[in-house]
Protein backbone atom coordinates (compact mmCIF):
# COMPACT_ATOMS: atom_id res chain seq x y z
CA UNK A 1 0.00 0.00 0.00
CA UNK A 2 1.42 3.31 -1.02
CA UNK A 3 2.18 5.79 1.60
CA UNK A 4 -0.06 8.88 1.86
CA UNK A 5 2.99 11.04 1.98
CA UNK A 6 3.73 10.39 -1.74
CA UNK A 7 0.57 12.38 -2.91
CA UNK A 8 0.57 16.14 -2.46
CA UNK A 9 -2.29 17.53 -0.51
CA UNK A 10 -4.85 19.48 -2.68
CA UNK A 11 -4.55 23.21 -2.38
CA UNK A 12 -7.54 25.22 -1.39
CA UNK A 13 -8.76 27.64 -4.10
CA UNK A 14 -7.28 31.03 -3.69
CA UNK A 15 -9.72 33.75 -2.63
CA UNK A 16 -9.38 37.46 -3.16
CA UNK A 17 -9.21 39.33 -0.03
CA UNK A 18 -12.52 40.73 1.11
CA UNK A 19 -11.28 44.28 0.96
CA UNK A 20 -10.33 44.08 -2.74
CA UNK A 21 -13.67 42.50 -3.64
CA UNK A 22 -15.58 45.34 -2.00
CA UNK A 23 -13.52 47.89 -3.91
CA UNK A 24 -14.34 46.15 -7.20
CA UNK A 25 -18.08 46.25 -6.53
CA UNK A 26 -17.96 49.93 -5.60
CA UNK A 27 -16.19 50.78 -8.87
CA UNK A 28 -18.72 48.76 -10.87
CA UNK A 29 -21.64 50.51 -9.24
CA UNK A 30 -20.19 53.99 -9.47
CA UNK A 31 -19.40 53.74 -13.25
CA UNK A 32 -22.17 55.53 -15.27
CA UNK A 33 -24.19 53.48 -17.71
CA UNK A 34 -24.11 54.41 -21.37
CA UNK A 35 -27.56 55.33 -22.65
CA UNK A 36 -28.81 54.37 -26.11
CA UNK A 37 -28.27 56.97 -28.84
CA UNK A 38 -31.96 57.92 -29.08
CA UNK A 39 -32.35 58.37 -25.35
CA UNK A 40 -29.07 60.28 -25.17
CA UNK A 41 -30.08 62.68 -27.93
CA UNK A 42 -33.48 63.19 -26.36
CA UNK A 43 -31.90 63.95 -23.03
CA UNK A 44 -29.46 66.34 -24.65
CA UNK A 45 -32.26 68.16 -26.48
CA UNK A 46 -34.30 68.58 -23.33
CA UNK A 47 -31.49 69.71 -21.11
CA UNK A 48 -29.71 71.93 -23.63
CA UNK A 49 -30.99 75.55 -23.44
CA UNK A 50 -32.23 77.16 -26.65
CA UNK A 51 -29.94 79.43 -28.60
CA UNK A 52 -30.19 83.16 -28.25
CA UNK A 53 -31.22 83.48 -31.88
CA UNK A 54 -34.04 80.95 -31.67
CA UNK A 55 -37.48 82.57 -31.40
CA UNK A 56 -39.18 82.10 -28.05
CA UNK A 57 -42.11 79.74 -27.79
CA UNK A 58 -45.39 81.59 -28.17
CA UNK A 59 -47.01 82.29 -24.85
CA UNK A 60 -50.56 83.22 -23.95
CA UNK A 61 -50.07 86.91 -24.71
CA UNK A 62 -48.68 86.28 -28.19
CA UNK A 63 -51.43 83.79 -28.95
CA UNK A 64 -54.04 86.33 -27.94
CA UNK A 65 -52.38 89.04 -30.01
CA UNK A 66 -52.70 86.90 -33.12
CA UNK A 67 -56.41 86.40 -32.60
CA UNK A 68 -58.32 88.47 -35.20
CA UNK A 69 -60.63 91.11 -33.75
CA UNK A 70 -64.30 90.18 -33.62
CA UNK A 71 -66.58 91.44 -36.34
CA UNK A 72 -69.15 93.89 -35.07
CA UNK A 73 -72.40 93.10 -36.78
CA UNK A 74 -74.01 96.20 -35.40
CA UNK A 75 -71.43 98.46 -37.02
CA UNK A 76 -71.84 96.94 -40.47
CA UNK A 77 -75.61 97.03 -40.24
CA UNK A 78 -75.44 100.65 -39.10
CA UNK A 79 -73.14 101.50 -42.01
CA UNK A 80 -75.46 99.83 -44.52
CA UNK A 81 -78.57 101.51 -43.03
CA UNK A 82 -76.87 104.94 -43.22
CA UNK A 83 -76.34 104.46 -46.95
CA UNK A 84 -80.06 103.77 -47.52
CA UNK A 85 -83.35 105.35 -46.59
CA UNK A 86 -83.48 109.01 -45.65
CA UNK A 87 -79.72 109.48 -45.46
CA UNK A 88 -79.06 108.17 -48.95
CA UNK A 89 -79.69 111.69 -50.31
CA UNK A 90 -78.34 115.06 -49.27
CA UNK A 91 -81.72 116.75 -48.87
CA UNK A 92 -85.22 115.82 -47.79
CA UNK A 93 -86.93 118.60 -49.77
CA UNK A 94 -86.08 120.69 -52.81
CA UNK A 95 -88.20 123.85 -52.97
CA UNK A 96 -88.79 124.91 -56.58
CA UNK A 97 -89.89 128.52 -56.87
CA UNK A 98 -89.64 131.58 -59.07
CA UNK A 99 -87.34 134.45 -58.28
CA UNK A 100 -90.21 136.74 -57.34
CA UNK A 101 -91.48 134.16 -54.82
CA UNK A 102 -88.21 133.98 -52.90
CA UNK A 103 -89.72 135.40 -49.71
CA UNK A 104 -92.51 132.79 -49.64
CA UNK A 105 -89.96 130.05 -50.34
CA UNK A 106 -87.76 131.23 -47.46
CA UNK A 107 -90.72 131.17 -45.08
CA UNK A 108 -91.54 127.61 -46.12
CA UNK A 109 -87.92 126.48 -45.69
CA UNK A 110 -87.70 128.11 -42.25
CA UNK A 111 -90.86 126.30 -41.19
CA UNK A 112 -89.66 122.89 -42.43
CA UNK A 113 -86.12 123.20 -41.06
CA UNK A 114 -87.34 124.54 -37.71
CA UNK A 115 -89.82 121.71 -37.13
CA UNK A 116 -89.12 118.82 -34.80
CA UNK A 117 -88.25 116.69 -37.83
CA UNK A 118 -85.42 119.10 -38.78
CA UNK A 119 -86.01 118.54 -42.47
CA UNK A 120 -83.04 119.25 -44.76
CA UNK A 121 -84.12 121.70 -47.46
CA UNK A 122 -82.50 122.85 -50.68
CA UNK A 123 -83.10 126.51 -51.48
CA UNK A 124 -81.66 127.46 -54.84
CA UNK A 125 -80.34 130.95 -54.11
CA UNK A 126 -78.87 129.75 -50.80
CA UNK A 127 -77.52 126.28 -51.60
CA UNK A 128 -76.62 126.35 -55.29
CA UNK A 129 -72.90 126.31 -56.11
CA UNK A 130 -71.69 129.78 -57.14
CA UNK A 131 -70.54 129.73 -60.75
CA UNK A 132 -72.34 126.46 -61.49
CA UNK A 133 -74.39 126.01 -64.63
CA UNK A 134 -78.08 126.66 -63.98
CA UNK A 135 -79.28 123.49 -65.72
CA UNK A 136 -76.73 121.32 -63.89
CA UNK A 137 -77.56 122.89 -60.52
CA UNK A 138 -81.31 122.44 -61.00
CA UNK A 139 -80.95 118.79 -62.04
CA UNK A 140 -78.51 118.09 -59.21
CA UNK A 141 -80.88 119.65 -56.68
CA UNK A 142 -83.74 117.43 -57.84
CA UNK A 143 -81.71 114.21 -57.88
CA UNK A 144 -80.20 114.95 -54.45
CA UNK A 145 -83.60 115.44 -52.77
CA UNK A 146 -86.24 112.93 -51.73
CA UNK A 147 -89.21 115.26 -52.23
CA UNK A 148 -89.85 118.26 -54.46
CA UNK A 149 -92.18 121.06 -53.41
CA UNK A 150 -93.44 123.07 -56.38
CA UNK A 151 -94.37 126.56 -55.18
CA UNK A 152 -96.95 127.22 -57.89
CA UNK A 153 -97.74 130.93 -58.24
CA UNK A 154 -98.39 133.23 -61.19
CA UNK A 155 -94.64 133.86 -61.29
CA UNK A 156 -93.93 130.09 -61.31
CA UNK A 157 -96.12 129.56 -64.38
CA UNK A 158 -94.33 132.35 -66.25
CA UNK A 159 -90.79 131.31 -65.32
CA UNK A 160 -89.23 128.94 -67.91
CA UNK A 161 -86.75 127.56 -65.35
CA UNK A 162 -89.58 126.67 -62.96
CA UNK A 163 -91.40 124.88 -65.76
CA UNK A 164 -88.18 123.06 -66.59
CA UNK A 165 -87.84 121.89 -62.97
CA UNK A 166 -91.46 120.74 -62.90
CA UNK A 167 -91.06 118.66 -66.06
CA UNK A 168 -87.71 117.31 -64.89
CA UNK A 169 -89.21 116.21 -61.57
CA UNK A 170 -92.04 114.43 -63.37
CA UNK A 171 -89.68 112.72 -65.82
CA UNK A 172 -87.38 111.44 -63.06
CA UNK A 173 -90.15 109.93 -60.95
CA UNK A 174 -93.44 109.90 -62.85
CA UNK A 175 -94.91 107.15 -60.68
CA UNK A 176 -93.26 108.01 -57.37
CA UNK A 177 -96.30 108.80 -55.30
CA UNK A 178 -95.71 111.48 -52.66
CA UNK A 179 -92.34 112.77 -53.93
CA UNK A 180 -93.69 115.76 -55.87
CA UNK A 181 -95.86 118.07 -53.75
CA UNK A 182 -97.57 121.02 -55.50
CA UNK A 183 -98.34 124.03 -53.27
CA UNK A 184 -100.74 126.51 -54.85
CA UNK A 185 -100.42 130.16 -53.80
CA UNK A 186 -102.47 133.01 -55.27
CA UNK A 187 -104.09 130.86 -57.95
CA UNK A 188 -107.45 129.23 -58.48
CA UNK A 189 -107.79 125.56 -59.31
CA UNK A 190 -108.53 126.52 -62.92
CA UNK A 191 -104.93 127.74 -63.28
CA UNK A 192 -103.50 124.46 -62.03
CA UNK A 193 -100.95 123.15 -64.60
CA UNK A 194 -102.28 120.43 -66.86
CA UNK A 195 -99.11 118.36 -66.34
CA UNK A 196 -100.05 117.97 -62.67
CA UNK A 197 -103.72 117.11 -63.08
CA UNK A 198 -103.15 113.57 -61.77
CA UNK A 199 -101.75 114.95 -58.45
CA UNK A 200 -103.54 116.52 -55.53
CA UNK A 201 -102.19 119.90 -54.54
CA UNK A 202 -101.93 121.71 -51.23
CA UNK A 203 -104.08 124.83 -51.02
CA UNK A 204 -102.00 127.68 -49.66
CA UNK A 205 -104.99 129.84 -48.75
CA UNK A 206 -105.18 128.34 -45.25
CA UNK A 207 -104.02 130.06 -42.04
CA UNK A 208 -100.54 128.51 -42.18
CA UNK A 209 -100.20 128.83 -45.94
CA UNK A 210 -100.40 125.06 -46.33
CA UNK A 211 -96.98 124.59 -44.70
CA UNK A 212 -98.22 121.99 -42.22
CA UNK A 213 -99.69 119.82 -44.98
CA UNK A 214 -96.43 120.05 -46.91
CA UNK A 215 -94.45 118.92 -43.88
CA UNK A 216 -96.81 116.01 -43.22
CA UNK A 217 -96.59 114.91 -46.87
CA UNK A 218 -92.78 114.93 -46.72
CA UNK A 219 -92.76 112.98 -43.46
CA UNK A 220 -95.13 110.35 -44.88
CA UNK A 221 -92.83 109.74 -47.81
CA UNK A 222 -89.71 109.56 -45.63
CA UNK A 223 -91.41 106.92 -43.49
CA UNK A 224 -92.00 104.75 -46.56
CA UNK A 225 -88.26 104.60 -47.32
CA UNK A 226 -86.94 104.26 -43.77
From TrEMBL:
InterPro entries: TIR_dom, Tol-interleuk_rcpt_adapt_Tirap, Toll_tir_struct_dom_sf. Pfam families: TIR_2 (PF13676). PROSITE patterns: TIR. Residues 89-218 form the TIR domain. Keywords: Cell membrane, Cytoplasm, Immunity, Inflammatory response, Innate immunity, Membrane, Receptor. One of its GO terms (molecular function) is Toll-like receptor 4 binding. Transmembrane segments: none annotated. One of its GO terms (biological process) is positive regulation of canonical NF-kappaB signal transduction. One of its GO terms (cellular component) is cytoplasm. Residues 1-87 are annotated as: Disordered. It is found in: Cytoplasm; Cell membrane; Membrane. Its main location: cytoplasm. Residues 39-50 have a biased composition (Polar residues). Homodimer. Adapter involved in the TLR2 and TLR4 signaling pathways in the innate immune response. PANTHER family: TIRAP, TOLL_INTERLEUKIN-1 RECEPTOR DOMAIN-CONTAINING ADAPTER PROTEIN. This is Toll/interleukin-1 receptor domain-containing adapter protein. It comes from Leptonychotes weddellii (Weddell seal).
Amino acid sequence: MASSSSFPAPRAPSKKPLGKMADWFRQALSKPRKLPDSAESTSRDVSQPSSRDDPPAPGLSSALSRTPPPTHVGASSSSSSSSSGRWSKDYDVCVCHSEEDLEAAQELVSYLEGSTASLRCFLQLRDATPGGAIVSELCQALSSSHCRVLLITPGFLQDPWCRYQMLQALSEAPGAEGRTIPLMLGLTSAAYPAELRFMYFVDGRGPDGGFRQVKEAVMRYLQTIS
